[in-house]
Amino acid sequence: MESRYDHLQAEQEIYTLWEDAHAFAPSSDRAGGDTAQKSFSIIMPPPNANDPLHIGHAMFVSIEDALTRFHRMRGDNTVWIPGTDHAGIETQFVYEKKLKKQGKSRFDFDRQTLFNDIMAYVKENSDVAVNQIKKLGASADWSRFTFTLDPDVVEFVTGTFKRLAADNLVYRDLQLVNFCVNCGTSFSELEVNHIDQTSSLYYVRYRMADNPKEYITLATTRPEPIWADTHLAVHPDNKKTMHLIGKKVLNPLTDAEMEIIADDFVDPEFGTGIVKLTPAHDFNDFAAAKRHNLPIIIAVDRRGKMTDGAGKYAGMSSKAAREAVVADLQTKTSPEYPDGLIEKIDTNYQNRIGTCYRCGRVLEPLPLPQFFIKVNAEKKSLTQAALKVLDEGKTIVHGAGREKILRHWLENLQDWNISRQIVWGIRIPVWYEVSGHEEKITVSFITAQKELKQGVLAELLKEHSLEEIAAGLQQLFADNTVPYTISVEDPSEDQSASTNSNIKGAKNTNQTTKSKKLYLPETDTFDTWFSSAQWPVVTLKTNKPDDFSRFYPTTVMETGYDILPFWVMRMMIMGIYITGQTPFSEVYLHGLVRDAKGQKMSKSKGNVINPLEIVEKFGADALRMALVIRSTPGLDKSVGDQDFKAMRNFSNKIWNASRFIALQDENPSHEVATNQAETSELGTGSGDAVFMEKLATITAEITKNMLDRKIGLAADTLYNEFWHWFCDECIEQHKQGSISLKVLQEGLHAFLHMLHPFMPFVTEKIWQELRATDDSLPEQLITSSWPEA
RNA sequence: GAUCGAUUAGCUCAGUUGGUUAGAGCGCCACAUUGACAUUGUGGAGGCCAUAGGUUCGAGUCCUAUAUCGAUCACCA
Q1: Is the ipTM of this complex over 0.95?
Q2: Cα-Cα-Cα-Cα dihedral of A341, A347, A353, A355, to 10°?
Q3: Nucleotides on strand B with an atom closer than 7 A to protein CB?
Q4: How long is the CA A736 to C1' B45 vector, in angstroms?
Q5: Mean pLDDT of successive 10-residue segments in chain A (789 residues)?
Q6: How far apart are CA A46 and CA A535, in angstroms?
Q7: End-to-end CA distance of chain A
């Protein structure tokens, strides 16, 4: 053995050794595997398919691999299933940036072409993440690798949608949703980023209809859609304003009459106690409008421009329209209000506003017909079922009080908008009936001459055939009233062929047809989380035939606490819905990885750690150990070069202690071999007995910590006991002659086993070295047995 | 406003069901070192465990309140 451990050389060699031995496969897959044994399973959180590795990936690999290796050594039928995620909006966003550099945009393509292009792009990059995860030493079973757009995954996910629809747990409705005019899609409530900002609060005068010389004043942050407002509201019990109920005022812009209604959502204390209702663009107003059956007039379109009804403001952006509207109101004067209809502007008004988590722009609440999952149906409440699983302890959460946060989410969850107006994803398997509804469907499509056309279908059909439109279809919006059929294939076509034979990932949509079309397809795709939510079920149902019965519910779901509501909660909801059982017995939530000073990592701060550089410089073992040691579920972990260096030194310490012991064995003439203890039987000398007893205590402690998922503590204990007890005390005592070589070897073997889950490369490399002179040892450390306490 | 965390050495953090003199890494000081390891060894300095109460034979650990920091949710035009 060399005097220094060379991680660069060893890591490559050792990983290949494991792969060649199929060491990552569950024992039930191997010949003679006992399927009756206890199983242990982890589903890897699938990284974005074309995302390069970041430190968060290294964190989950370190923890999940430690657990996987521990249970594998314990003799459990162990599997860790890897995969990658198509990451709908993220990936499309990245791809669109790329298009922009080429002077193009998503509007230059029909949806099928764009989908195929993105697929090719992702395929090109998708091996990157996988190979990087391998460099970290992940003992995941790559033969079970799954991609979220694999044909069988798509089939499964669309199947779940059909089942939800059959159970009346999915519906299409016109609802106000958060829409990003830049990204061109709506989001669910979870994806909205609320940020504090300073904005202007405009106090606008509304003239009384019966006497325009009198007016009332109310405050608004959004004057630009005033032209579309038809009603004001006051609180029914507010003494100051109750006399206004039923009265009429004039719209400041259009002079149309507006009625003042009563609704108790109005806060009498805020502003003047009077609020204007803009049902199409405010969540409270939308709800009020539904209660009072008010018209919903859309003032802002999906591009963020004023709609045609805005007259002179039509086509203006919100910001430009706001300035124009305010200017116009200020010039609308009379003797009673010489400064116009704006009483004052508070430019230092603090409020919170919803922004796009992806691009950061202000989201526009828009009424759109979308598909929703009913999460709290009376008879089949998905959220209640998840809460029950928590109550019964069938899923336990490790992570600093985060179970309470999960419960809070489950108790307050709203129906889940799963429609996304993007191409990159699984198309919602729905077709809209065209005949008789041409006026209620708007489409955009690319003509055979590569021209973009958009408009109401009825108009477009005058110049284009439905076949042409279908072939070049880019996006379709159907009114809430248009009937639809849930089906992957065009329901108007002959379906004599076996139903699902054509669902093949990339080409699952928009088949061009020969026969007369009666339907056009939905162009929206599922929220990525809708498929992710089914991940533990999907990965086990689409791989080996017995996987589901063997490994479901999975043992541990390990992921970052930041995606607790997005992913963990939804996996519980969907997993329980599909299978009737929780998808995982335990949730282990790791924290954010921060820099050495405890600062959040960000590109702008320049403190981002690239895990591959650390692997190169200090070794994967050092990186893993630094991330795991003394880490606590649910709390953030800070690391820096000093930590990686310390753990690199530790791996070298392990190497050298092993080397010393190996040298004693090879070299019995060495002076220390002449000591007395050497001649005694294993563990019978007094020093030996103390040693063995302490070793047993440590082993029991580590084992318990691992089972209790206190892996940060287990790693810390191992570090201290190995270095400061085994090396500093025991090896020195051996040199003094009070501990025999035999027990020292025994101790080394135990430590190598226990260190292996954390530092797999150096321990396996040493094992192979030891085995070179002692072939009675098990062939590989990775598949050998965890020491008995 | 509500909820959930955190507060321990100069810095970053562990501390298992309450149980002797509270630990690690990094940093600091002194010394050592040709035979496992300088990616080292030995020794050392450094802590009212945020504050105030309480429970207990005993509290860093359990309870209550306060303060500070952080996260999340709700926010009203």
Answers
A1: no
A2: 110
A3: 3-6, 11-16, 23-27, 36-42, 72-77
A4: 31
A5: 87 95 89 74 92 90 96 94 91 91 91 94 86 94 95 96 95 92 90 86 90 89 90 89 88 90 87 89 90 90 88 88 90 86 86 86 91 89 93 90 90 92 94 92 91 91 90 92 90 50 37 60 95 96 92 95 93 96 95 89 87 94 95 92 93 93 66 43 66 91 93 93 92 87 92 96 95 90 90
A6: 9
A7: 30
